[in-house]
Amino acid sequence: MSKIFIIGLGPGNYEQITERAINAINKSEVIIGYTYYTEIIKDMIKQKEVFSTPMKQEIDRCKKALEYALAGKTVAVVSSGDSGVYGMAGLIYEVCEGYPQVEIEVIPGITACCSGAAVLGAPLVHDFAVISLSDLLTPWEKIEKRLILAAKADFVICIYNPSSKKRWDYLKKACIILMKYKSMDTLCGYVKNIGRNGEEYNIVTLDKLKNINVDMFTTVIIGNTQTKIINGKLVTPRGYKDI
Q: Which residue segments constitute the domains of the chain, with CATH numbers given?
């Protein structure tokens, strides 16, 4: 049977790629992914056939994966983080919908909210929401509604894709929206280049966060009313000590 592995590579460093992902890569004859992601694992795939494209060519990559699979190749489609969280897993299933002969196996990876939270401390110990600020596929009006409802519910909020060259002020816009429902002193953290060269993090208030310059390789976590700093780290208690 033809096979496509959909693999989450985690934050990027080799130590955080799962053994299951490594085994699937080793079994695969063809590696497909966004150019940046295939570059991350270049030392692992030197003997493999590689098909990579720039951003915004996701459908092309999925169609190519199907084409290789139908030709009898074992294919690995790689994403950073977890392939099922803003990754390629859903699109692969959609593209392969009429081809039941192609076996699909999703291999999870460490998504940015988890790896970023680990750098900051323990901010996701209680309920949290994950929201992307990219309006490429989701209208801004819907993103804004999700921010408002998450803030009203006092969720910790993890933000993906906070800013880009074209969306340079989106994190600021989001912070201004959130400050209508959260205190301006709400504790927040952001991590750049998680698990890669140049990793850095900082803990700030929501009011200060709105003026921070970030990019697509930054993950932002906005605390709830219980979030606090313990020994220099961001922590959201779940309430175990109160039992």
A: 2-107 (3.40.1010.10), 112-235 (3.30.950.10)
Q: CA nearest 123: which of 208, 237, 205, 219?
A: 237
The predicted-structure confidence for 72-131, as pLDDT tens digits, reads as follows 999 999 999 999 999 999 999 999 999 999 999 999 999 999 999 999 999 999 999 999
At 145, list the tokens: 């509604």
What's the average model confidence in pLDDT over 25-48? 93
Closest C-alpha among 192, 186, 182, 185 to residue 213: 192
Specify whether the CB–CB gap between 128 and 154 falls below 8 A: no
Measure the CA angle with vertex 236, ends 204 and 226; round to 5°: 85
Question: Quick one: tokens of 168?
Answer: 């340079």
Give pTM, 2 decimals.
0.92
Average pLDDT, the chain: 95
* Confidence at residue 26, expressed as pLDDT on a 0 to 100 scale: 96
Alpha helix ranges (H) inside the chain: 19-27, 35-40, 58-70, 89-95, 112-120, 140-152, 170-178, 206-209
